[in-house]
Design goal:
Radius of gyration: 16 Å
Bound molecules: zinc ion
Shape: globular
Strand order of the largest sheet: 2-1-3
CATH superfamily of the largest domain: Winged helix-like DNA-binding domain superfamily/Winged helix DNA-binding domain
Distance between the termini: 32 Å
Length: 145
C-alpha cells in the first residue's frame, strides 16, 4: 500500500486553503468545485502536518514563520491531551453567538467560568489549526463545524 499523502489546495474562487486526500471535491469554505488544475500549495504525509500547513497557507506570508513555531508547539500539546482537546472544542462551541461567531472576549469570559488557565488566544489558534474556526475579522471567528 502506498504511503498516505495529503495535499494543501488553494481554492481558485475564495483563495482559502484546505486539506485534501487527493480526491478533489468542493471547497469547504465557499463550495466551489475544486478541479484537477487546482493550485496545490504543498504535499504532506501526516494529518498533523496537514493541519499545520493549511493554517500556515491561510496566513499572510510575513506571519508564517512565527505561526509555524506556535502551531508546532500547540500540535504536540493537542496530541498529548486528547480528552482535554475535546473539552476545549466544546468551549469554543459554547462561546459562539447565535450566528456561530466567536470573539476573543466571548471565549475569554467562558474560559473564566471554567477555572482554566489556557488563554483564549491559544484556544483559538488551536481551533483554527484543527479547521474548526475560520478568522473572518481581526477579532472575529466563525465556526466551520
Ligand atoms: Zn473556496
Amino acid at each position: 500500500m502506498k504511503q498516505k499523502q495529503w495535499i494543501v489546495v488553494r481554492c481558485s474562487a475564495c483563495r482559502n486553503c484546505h486539506g485534501s486526500n487527493g480526491n478533489y471535491k468542493k471547497c469547504p469554505h465557499c463550495g466551489n468545485t475544486i478541479g484537477e488544475n487546482a493550485d496545490i500549495v504543498s504535499t504532506v504525509s501526516s494529518d498533523a502536518e496537514l493541519r499545520i500547513e493549511v493554517a500556515i497557507a491561510n496566513t499572510p506570508a510575513e506571519l508564517r514563520d512565527s505561526l509555524r513555531e506556535k502551531l508546532k508547539s500547540t500540535e504536540s500539546l493537542v496530541h498529548n491531551s486528547d480528552p482535554h482537546a475535546f473539552t476545549m472544542a466544546k468551549w469554543v462551541h459554547q462561546s459562539a453567538d447565535e450566528n456561530g461567531e466567536i470573539t476573543l472576549q466571548s471565549l475569554s469570559s467562558l474560559i473564566a467560568t471554567k477555572n482554566s488557565d489556557i488563554s483564549a488566544e491559544d484556544l483559538i489558534s488551536m481551533a483554527e489549526t484543527q479547521g474548526m474556526l475560520l478568522r473572518i475579522d481581526e477579532n472575529r471567528w466563525t465556526l466551520l463545524e
